[in-house]
# Entry
Amino acid sequence: MKMENCVVLIHGFGGGYFELENLDKFLTEKGIDSRFVQLAGHTGRYKDFMLVTRKQWIKSARKKIEEILEEYETVTIVGFSMGGLIATYMADLPVKSFIFVNTPLKLSDAGKVVGNVVGSFAQYANKYIRATIKTPLPALYELNELLKETKDTNFSKIKVPCLILQTRDDDTANSKSAELISQRLKCQHEVIRYDRGGHKIFNGDYCDTACEDILDFIELTNHSVNWHTL
# Structure
């Protein structure tokens, strides 16, 4: 007999479990089943990342989620950053709800990048330099193509409740992305903004707040037929 629901965690571009580890541990402590999806090419090896395509990212996520659905009736998908774009390709599966965390429909705010570097040169300049060195140009091309293919059609296909979380100081996903996603969704949804937290919110000061908001949403959508009336 299948279990009722599992929370599936999808990481971001060039990322991994470390981006969602604190959320995973939080959900486990609350007695909620969760599983992590590692996207194709995200092995930590430059060559693997350089050769992977957006279709392989989507295929690897779908394969893992279909395996999870052999054990569970439905899934709730949490997509962090690019993981949110990947999640939209699962709208035809038995998904109970979607949670988009700092998911970009516009990429980084140049003003925030400059402000960060000027404000704390040693910390942020090294960050951006390291990111540039370790990110292959073919992977960046695939990300850009994924963004273009996703933003105009995929969000409007979602029929289940959605939660959108967005930090205002995000220097990777432009903070206007939350509104752009909201405009495209035709289903019940809620937007929650945080003043701080940066892009990797689950590794920052607002981690606990974001985790609690996700838990509240999961509990509401799991137990309420008319979520939007609560």
Notes: The domain at 3-218 is CATH 3.40.50.1820 (Rossmann fold). The first helix runs from residue 21 to 29.
